[in-house]
Amino acid sequence: MKYINTLKEGDRGTETYLCKKKSQGISKTGKAFESLTLCDKTGTIDAKIWDVDSEGISDYDELDFITVTGDITSWNGALQFNIKRLRKANPGEFEISDYIPASKKDVGEMWASLTKLIQSVKVPYFKALLNKFFVEDKEFIEQFKSHSAAKSVHHGFTGGLLEHTLSVATNCDYFSQQYPFLDRDLLITAAIFHDLGKVKELSEFPRNDYTDEGQLLGHIYVGANMLDRAIDDIEGFPEVKRKELIHCILSHHGELEFGSPKKPAIAEAIALSFADNIDAKLETIYEALENVEENNLTWQGFNRLLDSNIRRTGKN
User: Fold this and answer.
1) In whole angstroms, what is the distance from residue 59 CA to residue 65 CA?
2) Could you tell me which residues are beta bridge partners of residue 39?
3) HEC assignment per residue over 194-206
4) What is the value of pTM for the model shown?
5) How far is Cα 265 from Cα 248, in angstroms, rounded to an integer?
6) Any idea where the domains of the chain sit in the sequence?
7) CATH assignment of 107-289?
8) Across the chain, where does the E strand assignment appear?
9) For 133-238, where are the E strands, in sequence order?
10) Nearest alpha-carbon partner for 169 in 294, 41, 15, 272
11) Which of 64, 72, 82 has the alpha carbon at shortest distance from 17?
12) pLDDT tens-digit profile of 197-230?
């Protein structure tokens, strides 16, 4: 199999990919064509079927595994797969693991580490809230362990939400040791819940796309609302701590222009926003440079998310 991240202009051949999206269009000459988004675990590529009535083009749907024959061209600076022949792939012709990106870390080990952090929370009402989701709700647990943290920005793979959450919570645990004035239990609880809404903002793989809730409301509001409702069921949960926890969730992107409806106004919210930003940015640059050879110090171009031209670090 030739993975998408290895394709280059001029390549020709037959490969099997997952059809993530398909749509119809009309060219400037009035001829019908189809646009597809093909994907595997390494990324996506735009594809076109210019002759939709060709005998070599069979019926297919979104989320089908399809075997395509064609050539790789370039359009507006991006690679494009021009499809000449297409059919649905037969069972046994592909391995699903080749098409679903997954965390390189062991899910069981990450879950054990997150569980240990949850168990370290001492305040009864915070622990009860954490247990409501991460101990008692088996359906949520399986969803959380397999979900991505993003569509494409960072941790956009199965297990990504768990990996990102664990990293942010671990960062916050470190902050609580370095700055003892922080309310550790509030901070750890907020860190573990900060991206709770992503289980509803994004659909599960293989689609991994924004749901109606994601498009209309966003994960910050959705997560805050999920927590607010769950707190109603926790007896003796102080109102001031409800407000502080919800504030941490609402402000964890740090700035209004980054999607937070509130800027951090308490120390724990500040710590959480930095912990989240650290992990998101470091994972972003890691993913951007992952396939660049270690001795390649060539500047890779401007990265919109990091707002900078980037390259690898030189080896000693």
Assistant:
1) 12
2) 18, 44
3) CCCCHHHHECCCC
4) 0.82
5) 9
6) 4-98, 107-289
7) 1.10.3210
8) 12-26, 32-40, 43-49, 65-75, 78-88, 302-303, 308-309
9) none
10) 272
11) 64
12) 999 999 888 888 899 999 999 999 999 999 999 9
